[in-house]
């Protein structure tokens, strides 16, 4: 039923078009809905509030404007898709939208067709308005705001060194390409050292609302120093790009090696697992939760040691008792507490550790289904299964890390990583030796591909591992590099 104090839908939105999107007002739409649990198939009653900034917020009890509680559900209708349906109940509608890195669907039910029409029209109206505002923002001044925001964050090379620019590097090889930009193998002219330069388009970052993620990654890279975390050498900006110059990790993705070998031995998994635990322990002690642990973000250096990459989803300022509510991460790796829209803390990283160590020893994900709704049900409800070949210690470790209740999960208590370090699976591990890289790796990359460089039209040599370069085979010749450096547009690279 519609709450009586709400005005006619269109009049409300038009009259309060200029209200501050961060303030609740009488104009906010508040309806008593029965949203279908996205991850558990049952209907749960909620009071929902639609705000002009696109926030769609759900409460268990009817909120009072003067004292609004923290919401149980909170997501944005920006760029959403709407669909009306009569299943599983009449007067149902579905909202499909992007939440951080994941596409999700939410199913809602109301009492009458008119109520459904009012809600879908209101949601579409807000989404359209946000789309127009985004287009106007990009057309008017796509980078002026971000220039000011990143000035202090980006220029880390100015304190002790001359500020770096694009012309300080030779551009050798396109390593990878994504939505927001690309990663290029570069050589610093002054030192001859090789780095991986991550180049992000400011316009795309703004359009995709990724400014916060980008600045978080910059801060984490700048403020952390650990042997198993990717380090940042320089960062700077041009008129239309943000540039991160990072150490070049040339041992390839762990995903590549596991795909080739299918499973790792328990001894090899213990080696990688110990280095991951050491890195996460360091991040947690710095009040940072990683939140995106997966095989694709785990790289190996030339000596076969671990390097964790991609810090865009990190959450800063999280202590032992602190929690978060953001729904983010990769679907197969999401912890149950994230799926249930509950507050969550550092234990999400230990769930991620459980998933990746399970993959290493078992050769598959602990929970998988192509249908995300079924996948999420498995994560929430299904018991974990093990191959017969696993030892009792390995089963105990995985069972502890993949406990669905974060408070009971291994590492979920106040001792955090220390609880995992004490587990029998890691008995005999000298954790100081792990940190000092005194433990010998099971794989060492020793091939120098000078012939590979010549074949690609690139002068000079560097230790490379083909798996680390498998994303894109497009080469940048020395002649092409000269063309690229003539301007800021990177038109040649954009065509790669």
From TrEMBL:
<dbReference type="GO" id="GO:0004674">
    <property type="term" value="F:protein serine/threonine kinase activity"/>
</dbReference>
<dbReference type="GO" id="GO:0005524">
    <property type="term" value="F:ATP binding"/>
</dbReference>
<dbReference type="InterPro" id="IPR008271">
    <property type="entry name" value="Ser/Thr_kinase_AS"/>
</dbReference>
<dbReference type="InterPro" id="IPR000719">
    <property type="entry name" value="Prot_kinase_dom"/>
</dbReference>
<feature type="binding site">
    <location>
        <position position="208"/>
    </location>
    <ligand>
        <name>ATP</name>
    </ligand>
</feature>
<dbReference type="Pfam" id="PF00069">
    <property type="entry name" value="Pkinase"/>
</dbReference>
<dbReference type="GO" id="GO:0110057">
    <property type="term" value="P:regulation of blood vessel endothelial cell differentiation"/>
</dbReference>
<keyword id="KW-0418">Kinase</keyword>
<dbReference type="InterPro" id="IPR001849">
    <property type="entry name" value="PH_domain"/>
</dbReference>
<dbReference type="InterPro" id="IPR017441">
    <property type="entry name" value="Protein_kinase_ATP_BS"/>
</dbReference>
<protein>
    <recommendedName>
        <fullName>non-specific serine/threonine protein kinase</fullName>
        <ecNumber>2.7.11.1</ecNumber>
    </recommendedName>
</protein>
<keyword id="KW-0808">Transferase</keyword>
<keyword id="KW-0597">Phosphoprotein</keyword>
<dbReference type="Pfam" id="PF00169">
    <property type="entry name" value="PH"/>
</dbReference>
<keyword id="KW-0723">Serine/threonine-protein kinase</keyword>
<feature type="domain" description="Protein kinase">
    <location>
        <begin position="169"/>
        <end position="426"/>
    </location>
</feature>
<keyword id="KW-0547">Nucleotide-binding</keyword>
<dbReference type="InterPro" id="IPR011993">
    <property type="entry name" value="PH-like_dom_sf"/>
</dbReference>
<feature type="domain" description="PH">
    <location>
        <begin position="23"/>
        <end position="128"/>
    </location>
</feature>
<keyword id="KW-0067">ATP-binding</keyword>
<dbReference type="InterPro" id="IPR011009">
    <property type="entry name" value="Kinase-like_dom_sf"/>
</dbReference>
<comment type="similarity">
    <text>Belongs to the protein kinase superfamily. AGC Ser/Thr protein kinase family. RAC subfamily.</text>
</comment>
<dbReference type="InterPro" id="IPR039026">
    <property type="entry name" value="PH_PKB"/>
</dbReference>
């Amino acid at each position: 039923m519609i709450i009586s104090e709400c005005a006619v839908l269109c009049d409300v939105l038009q009259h309060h078009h200029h209200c501050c999107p961060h303030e609740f007002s009488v104009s906010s739409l508040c309806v008593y809905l029965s949203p279908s649990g996205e991850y558990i198939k049952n209907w749960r009653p909620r009071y929902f509030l639609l705000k002009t900034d696109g926030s769609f917020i759900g409460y268990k009890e009817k909120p009072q404007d003067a004292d609004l509680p923290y919401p149980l559900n909170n997501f944005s209708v920006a760029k959403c898709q709407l669909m009306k349906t009569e299943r599983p109940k009449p007067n149902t509608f579905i909202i499909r939208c992007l939440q951080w890195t994941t596409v999700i669907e939410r199913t809602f039910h109301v009492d009458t067709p008119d109520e459904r029409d009012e809600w879908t029209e209101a949601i579409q109206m807000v989404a359209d308005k946000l789309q127009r505002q985004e287009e106007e923002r990009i057309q008017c001044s796509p980078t002026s705001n971000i220039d000011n925001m990143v000035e202090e964050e980006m220029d880390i090379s100015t304190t002790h060194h001359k500020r770096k620019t694009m012309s300080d590097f030779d551009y050798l090889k396109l390593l990878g390409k994504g939505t927001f930009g690309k990663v290029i193998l570069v050589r610093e002219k002054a030192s001859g050292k090789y780095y991986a330069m991550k180049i992000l388009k400011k316009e795309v970052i703004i359009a995709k609302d990724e400014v916060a993620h980008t600045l978080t990654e910059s801060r984490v890279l700048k403020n952390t120093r650990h042997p198993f975390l990717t380090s940042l050498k320089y960062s700077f900006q041009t008129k239309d790009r943000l540039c991160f110059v990072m150490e070049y990790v040339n041992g390839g993705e762990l995903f590549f090696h596991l795909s080739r070998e299918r499973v790792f031995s328990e001894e090899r998994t213990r080696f990688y697992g110990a280095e991951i635990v050491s890195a996460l322990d360091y991040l947690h002690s710095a009040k940072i939760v990683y939140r995106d642990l997966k095989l694709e973000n785990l790289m190996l250096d030339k000596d076969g040691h671990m390097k964790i990459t991609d810090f865009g989803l990190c959450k800063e300022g999280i202590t032992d008792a602190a929690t978060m509510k953001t729904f983010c991460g990769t679907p197969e790796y999401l912890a149950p507490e994230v799926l249930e829209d509950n507050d969550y803390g550092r234990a999400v990283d230990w769930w991620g550790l459980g998933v990746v160590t399970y993959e290493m020893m078992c050769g598959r994900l602990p929970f998988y289904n192509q249908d995300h709704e079924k996948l999420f049900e498995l994560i929430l409800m299904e018991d974990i299964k093990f191959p017969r070949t696993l030892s009792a210690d390995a089963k105990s470790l995985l069972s502890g890390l993949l406990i669905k209740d974060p408070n009971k999960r291994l590492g979920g208590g106040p001792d955090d990583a220390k609880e995992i370090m004490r587990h029998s699976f890691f008995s005999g591990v000298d954790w100081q030796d792990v940190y000092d890289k005194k433990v010998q790796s099971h794989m060492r990359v020793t091939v120098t591909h000078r012939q590979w460089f010549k074949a690609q039209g690139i002068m000079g040599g560097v230790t490379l591992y083909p798996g680390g370069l498998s994303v894109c085979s497009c080469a940048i010749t020395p002649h092409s590099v000269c063309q690229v450096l003539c301007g800021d547009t990177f038109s040649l690279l954009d065509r790669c």
